[in-house]
Amino acid sequence: MTDAQSFYGRWARVYDWVANAPGVASWRDRTADSLALAPGDTVVEMGCGTGANVPALRERVGPAGRVVGVDVTREMLDRARERPARTGGAVHYVQADAARPPVRAADAVLATFVAGIFEAPEAAVDAWCDSVGPGGRVALLNFQRSPSTLATPLNLAFEGFVRLSAPGTRLSRRSHASAFERRVRAARERLTERTVARRYETMAGGFVGLLSGTVA
Predict the structure, then answer these.
(1) Alpha-carbon separation of residue 153 from 44, 56, 109, 166 (angstroms)
(2) What is the arithmetic mean of pLDDT over 47-57?
């Protein structure tokens, strides 16, 4: 078991609670809308965690569509399977590394709050774009520090959030918020290179950014 699997396995129930905190549902709806899904589509969520996005995705692809959740942590997937709204005939969960997904020929790929944890985010985005091919839609939703001057106190808290929410960071003296944002920026830059018809929007006062595009 990797450090990441052990870390996220221990925190699966807490992550499930955070994923369903008040206000987060609107982010998920806007993110699902950015994929421009149609009934019958196949959508894959990379790093699906406890499956909080599944209901929104399943609603858009309908009974003829398919939702595939990929996550490396068994406890996260077990938690997802416990929720009736996140299971069913159109929903499938796969335990695998989201940076090297064993999935092809999807219509759309979603990655929420995961791009910043990969050591090679560009390679992960390439794999996601290759999973859908030309004409497929890819969306990245990530936390970030807000550019608003009014958000300065919360930006200071962002460092603590990153330390608590990722494996191997709490005892380090380095600024993990800066490293996290560099990885997110690298993922966004690669998605920009690989896509057209892009759209970028922010939510939660600038603390959440959503980039989506159609693979060229």
Answers:
(1) 36, 32, 34, 21
(2) 93
C-alpha dihedral (65, 71, 75, 77), degrees to nearest 10? 0
* Percent of the chain whose pLDDT exceeds 90: 57
Q: Which 8-state DSSP code applies to residue 211?
A: E
Q: Is the dihedral of CA 164, 34, 123, 92 positive or negative?
A: positive
The pLDDT tens digits for 5-46 are 444 444 445 555 556 666 788 899 999 999 999 999 999 999
DSSP annotation of 101: -
Count of residues for the chain? 216
Asked if residues 190 and 125 have their Cβ atoms less than 8 Å apart, the reply is yes
- pLDDT tens digits for range 63-73: 999 999 999 99
Q: How far apart are CA 44 and CA 28, in angstroms?
A: 14
SS3 content of the chain, % helix, strand, coil (to 5): 45, 20, 35
Q: What is the 3-state secondary structure (H, E, C) of 144-208?
A: CCCCCHHHHHHHHHHHHHHHHHCCCCCCCCCCHHHHHHHHHHHHHHHHHHHEEEEEEEEEHHHCE
Q: What is the DSSP letter of 88?
A: S
CA–CA distance, 35 with 139 (Å, rounded to integer): 7
The sheet that has 108-112: what strands, in order across it?
A: 91-95, 66-71, 42-46, 108-112, 137-143, 208-215, 195-203
